[in-house]
Fold this protein.
Amino acid sequence: MARSKRKVHLSELQLAILRVLWKRGEASTADVVAELGARRGLAPTTLATLLTRLAKRGVLGQRRDGRTLVYRALVSEP
């Protein structure tokens, strides 16, 4: 069954996370924190929460690599 194309509304911070994933292909929480955390003054737990919520919404896919969660974008870049 083909996926339907639906508009996904994202905040600027959510888009910044997606840009990291589009650039890298896949990234762990630590990778996203390293890229965005200091620049935006965000705690690692904040970014981890955003990644989890985006995965629950179906915007990101996630897999386990040992104890690490690795994320990838399931939506295409505009």
Observations:
- The radius of gyration is 12 Å.
- The chain has a mean pLDDT of 90.
